[in-house]
């Protein structure tokens, strides 16, 4: 028999084998036992997380000769037929190649026929988001009211492309990325059953590279076994995945922290000459800095380290580096990563970042030389005690002693983000109740859509943000904290994603203006006060500069910006 890839040989045959999706498998098992089977399911999530496998397991379980059961027996004729694809009652379709109206109409015509062998006809439609709008429309009525013997299971990696009318007719299950720990455990079991020896650290490297997909992890493991033979080492895993060894990464980070610019650049050049990807290297540096910060501030969370294993060299660096310095590193590296993705000179950006980090200003730490000599302090204390005794002897009470001057308040840190007051006032001037109501009504849907698109880190910035005013083309977004406002407005991906999703939900395009809460209160109060003064004077007042510019060039050519 021809060789089969590991991910095909070890494809889950029961719910217990589906790794990292307990929230999905448990729900489906309970529904099977209670015979509460829905007519349509939507399985969404990243690639290689078990969507199609779970769909086939569900198809076997509902048709198993021993039903109702929470797991298919995999022994009866129907279970074996579904596994090898010989049962005509379970139909698998690839929507990428069968995405037209005619294919869906063919399904619609055939669903009315009863199943041949099992109790249910199960249609598994993979990558359903590839269907054309006409095909979705043809599927609507059938999906809503199919015959009692038909079950639809739709699988997709991009649920945001599926019409809401389809989603509302399905029970939706979101498959999440599988953790590196779960992937490592599954690969270890497979390696032992296959008689292959794999080093523990090699498994960690492969699991991290797979980025939450079990199929990707098994493909990489398969490749590593082919490369190395019967024993997979760390070096084999690094070669196959294109990853960077921890020792090399540690030396690079140590050179940067020690401000050895030449050594850092030499390490980068060596890695690039070995064929390492600059984008992979910058990502590894970000994760390494993140792990350093996590280990430095919360060493009890060692299991949460993503990029490194806490060896002696790593712990030594963590003991010497300051958290403030790691904050600087992560900020610079993150900005560099964004620039590299948009540039044709990724290597240059990487080298510039290494120079900038190795020459960055260190946080101030008290030096021993700044501490006065201990004996001098003792002498000074004795002198002050003697003076105090003399004052008491001369009849001066402690109450009469002048009160110490209150310590000067630390000057508050200047604002690092200045909201565009002029643009905000322009929005307020043209604001309508319908526009702000429309945005507020779909705000929750927008956040949910961002979460479905794996943008949870961006959505976190909007947790305490609130739309407060909107005109026909712009809305004002108030943030509770200034730092969240600054981070959100400087993130191009976020400022591009929000308007595009809102446009899908509302049908109108709104650009966004961010403003911290304290600045919003000032701007709104100033706007209201000016409006009241204008009403008292019987005319609308305007900024003198804008008014003069309007006289010179006219309103049509005037573009007001802060």
From TrEMBL:
EC number: 2.7.7.7
Pfam families from the UniProt entry: DNA_pol3_delta2, DNA_pol3_gamma3, DNAX_ATPase_lid
InterPro entries assigned to the protein according to its UniProt record, in alphabetical order: AAA+_ATPase (IPR003593), ClpA/B (IPR001270), DNA_pol3_clamp-load_cplx_C (IPR008921), DNA_pol_III_gamma-3 (IPR022754), DNA_pol_III_sug/sutau_N (IPR012763), DNA_Rep/Repair_Clamp_Loader (IPR050238), HLD_clamp_pol_III_gamma_tau (IPR045085), P-loop_NTPase (IPR027417)
Protein name, entry field: DNA-directed DNA polymerase
Keyword match Zinc: yes
Class of the enzyme per the UniProt entry, highest EC level: transferase
Top-level division of the source organism's lineage: Bacteria
Gene name of the encoded protein: dnaX
Keywords: ATP-binding, DNA replication, DNA-directed DNA polymerase, Metal-binding, Nucleotide-binding, Nucleotidyltransferase, Transferase, Zinc
Record GO cellular component, one term: DNA polymerase III complex
GO MF term set: ATP binding; DNA binding; DNA-directed DNA polymerase activity; metal ion binding
Species lineage: Bacteria, Bacillati, Bacillota, Bacilli, Bacillales
GO BP annotation list: DNA-templated DNA replication
Region (Disordered): 397-423
Organism: Jeotgalibacillus salarius
All residue ranges annotated as the AAA+ ATPase domain in the record: 37-179
Family indicated by similarity: Belongs to the DnaX/STICHEL family.
Reaction equation(s) it catalyzes: DNA(n) + a 2'-deoxyribonucleoside 5'-triphosphate = DNA(n+1) + diphosphate
Acetylation found in the keyword field: no
